[in-house]
Design goal:
This protein has about 210 residues and is α+β, with helices and mostly antiparallel strands. The chain contains eight helices and four strands. It has a four-stranded mixed beta sheet with strand order 2-1-3-4, covered by helices on one side. Strand 1, helix 1 and strand 2 form a beta-alpha-beta unit. The longest helix has 22 residues. The protein is globular and about 45 Å long. The chain starts with a strand and ends with a helix.
């Protein structure tokens, strides 16, 4: 019997990334909506994620937190979905997955808060500056395919979620490569299903 996947999320959170990943897998899972405030900081939920945030998954006895880690874990746990390259061909896959989790998220978050490192201190932060980060992202997406080649992978779920969110809220530059990538992602059935589920949950509809 396949171990149950329990997905802890909130529709107004990074849990939307993991929802998309789960829909790409097309495997059964059970959703537990965790409300902000006391429920997310309860002893029960802190036993799942001591950070008191979502998303998280429990797959049988295994708990995984942090959206990029969850995406990578699920790609490996369900290899039949084809969402990770073969073991010897994962250079670009890991590179861009963790670029999005590190430099890209930090650069976009700091810009959103009106923060930028002084020019003489850029070497002390993981992304240098916002422009360099955007140029590097364009390097990943400018080829017209996906971040790890011509095949969609879990790295695209994570990188793509950042690109979609950043474009939608004017937090990343609207470069042609980013817009074209967004169009490729928004056409995916799993993305549309996941978005519809979370939009309905966020509006209180069943």
């Amino acid at each position: 019997m396949t171990a149950e996947i329990v997905f802890f999320t909130n529709p107004r959170s990074r849990g939307r990334i993991v929802r998309w990943m789960l829909e790409e897998l097309a495997v059964p899972y059970r959703t537990e909506i965790v409300e902000y405030g006391p429920p997310m900081k309860s002893a029960e939920y802190l036993a799942v994620n001591p950070m008191g945030k979502v998303p998280a998954i429990r797959h049988g006895p295994t708990i995984v937190t942090e959206a990029p880690a969850i995406c990578a874990y699920l790609a490996d746990a369900f290899p039949e979905a084809g969402l990770a390259p073969p073991a010897g061909q994962r250079g670009a896959y890991y590179r861009w997955l963790f670029f999005a989790a590190g430099p890209l998220e930090a650069a976009v978050t700091n810009r959103n808060f009106g923060l930028a490192p002084p020019a003489d201190k850029e070497g002390m932060v993981g992304y240098g500056n916002f422009g360099l980060t955007m140029d590097t992202l364009e390097t990943a997406l400018g080829g017209g395919g996906y971040v790890a080649g011509e095949t969609f992978t879990a790295a695209d779920v994570y990188v793509g979620s950042h690109v979609l969110w950043g474009l939608n809220f004017d937090l990343i530059e609207k470069r042609p490569a980013f817009e074209a990538y967004r169009s490729r992602l928004e056409g995916r059935e799993a993305y549309r299903r996941a978005t519809a589920i979370d939009d309905a949950a966020g509006s209180g509809k069943d």
